[in-house]
Amino acid sequence: MTQPVTAVPALHAKRIVFTGKQQLHLEAFDPGEPGEGQVVTRTEFSLMSTGTENIVFNRNFDPGTHWDNWVKYPFYPGYTLVGTIQKVGPGVTDRFVGQRVAYRTGHRSHALMAAKFTYPIPDEVPWEEAVWFSLVKIAFMGARAADYRLGDTVLIIGAGPIGQMSVRWARAAGAASIIVVDPVPGRLKAATEGGATAVISLPIGEAREAVLAANGGQLPRVVIDGTGHAAVFAHALTLAARFGTVVVLGDTGQPTQQTLTTDVINRGLRIVGAHDCHTDEQWHDATITDYFFRLVKSGRFPMQNLTSHMFKPEACADAYGIANRDRAATMGILFDWRSE
Question: Is the N end or the C end of the chain the one with fewer CB atoms within 10 Å?
Answer without folding.
Answer: N
